[in-house]
Amino acid sequence: MRERTIYTKDLTVSNFFLKKGSYIYPLNNAKKVTINKHEYYQIGENEFVKVANTVERNTKVLRLKHNAFVYSKSGKAIKNGKKKLLLKKGKQVKVKANFIVKIGHSKFYQIGKNQFVKVANF
User: Fold this and answer.
1) What are the residue boundaries of the S-layer protein C-terminal domain, all occurrences included (predicted)?
2) In what order do the strands lie in the sheet with 106-112?
3) I need a surface site. Which of 8, 15, 120, 121 has the fewest CB within 10 A?
4) pLDDT tens for residues 6-58?
């Protein structure tokens, strides 16, 4: 987590700040709250932190051993225009730890919402 402020429900800045690396414990089973088109986690009474400024604890960073395409949950390569989305060899990628998804006959790590990379590429 980057060093960020804590907001109140009306998006004013509270008197508290979170240091980089701090753990937060969201309320309501980590349910996201949408305020002015931005998602927040509620961490206390009238205290919120932007979801974009947090990192899930159950992630790990892996380095690609091969160039890898990014796939959707249906198993099709995601395209950026006419070209398939490609991650280069040596790139570090955050994956959901100990969570391998089987799509068709291949195994994948989830790297984002509806984004998967084959396990064989790590």
Assistant:
1) 12-52, 53-120
2) 100-103, 106-112, 115-118
3) 15
4) 766 766 666 666 777 777 777 877 788 888 888 888 888 888 888 877 777 77
